[in-house]
Amino acid sequence: MADTKIQNEDIAKAINAFSQNKFDEAETICMDLLKKGDNPDANHIIGCLRMREKKFDESIEYLKKAIHSQPSNLGFHASLGCAYSSIKDYQKAINSFVTVIKADPKSSQVHFYLGEAYRQTGKFKESLDHFNQCTSLSQDHLGSQLMSGVVHEELKHFDRAKESYQACIETYPEYIAAHINLGMCCLLTGEYEKGWSEYEWRLKLPEENHSHELKKPQWQGESLEGKKLLIICEQGFGDTIQFIRFAEQLTLGGAKISIMAPDELISLLNQQKGIEKVVSFKESLPDHDFYTYMLSIPKVIEWKPNTFEQKFPYLQVEEKDLSFISEKKINIGLVTQTRRETGDEKSRSIDIEKFKNMFDEQKHNVISLDYFSNHKDNKNKIMNVEPEIKDFTDTASIIQNLDLVISVDTVVAHLAGSLGIKTLLCLPAVPGWRWDLNFPKATPWYPSLELFRQPVHDDWDTVIKQIKEVINNV
Fold it and tell me: Which of 7, 127, 248, 358 has its CB surrounded by the most CB atoms within 10 Å?
């Protein structure tokens, strides 16, 4: 009895240390306990510590030991579900969370976890049900309100999604994520004025690209006649390619443009008309009178489809002779994968095997523009030219020599569109905000793009079938 009392006191000390972020102290206490014998609470705390350290396999083993000793402890099952979610084993996560909900249907936070796990597996109706239950049990749970909006978008209930985001904002007006999501939903459905306005809330997030102190005023539409404007690139590479079009437009108003950009884009941006200077995020700020973030320009100029006549191509790339370009065949560039860092690569990428038997070797010269997929097995008769690609200038030079590009939603699609190359773009059922749903087969951003949208989630087969029909006629 005395030994149990001492163990309980030690566990209380470990929990207190954990809650105060004294993680080393909590671990020392728990490890000392485990040297003396099995202790489910100590295993649980070590499991949570390993989860925090992103040592997920170890975390799962400790949590399983805790559950083996105390299978009825719901907290242990909830932690195990979080560990499984961390390694994206969402089905096992669901099993753990369901165990908790069956015993305690009023656990609002576990309803939230379960809603997210179902969302990740594409079970949107189940996901929405659990987010709604979370909100019902805990009405101030803004996360569940926000995620309800996200799931409504996936279900194509866009008005209800906006209502969910707006409800978050009414509860907490400074909720940055709700404003950003509302902005993207509005842009996706063609509400440009409200969309650009709400999307500005992204600027309240911590700046990750650079640490410069911006002392000059942010451009809000003032005359740029004879003024120096610094444009700061942000977010993905595709965003820069899409919105760099506005730089030349601003020079017509007398602006002298400099660009702050990621290293990977500098050589390409240095070739563009109207840009006087390009610097990396690591360099000092160039002289300027105003600055603007690149994705803020459309808000300032109140861009919407047909705001002004666009010229294509709007990117300039030096011509290169490429040995792998065929003069006798149709040259096709293929992109099937997106970067894993995007977070939504699963919904945007396509298994390369789905393109099997699409191309005619006698007729088509197919070139892989994937950076994230290994085509060395060459089962699909696709040429891997990755060694030829050192930066986006090289990629753009290849694209400029192609007759056709087939791409998922990634930077290559933007490069091809900016260069005026015919492109077949494969999109998920609910795509990113830039692919306005009011334009089912086309986009006002790039007239050379033809859009192929999934009719329902994960249905790439229909998209591939439609693209095959186009290829057969090329």
Answer: 127
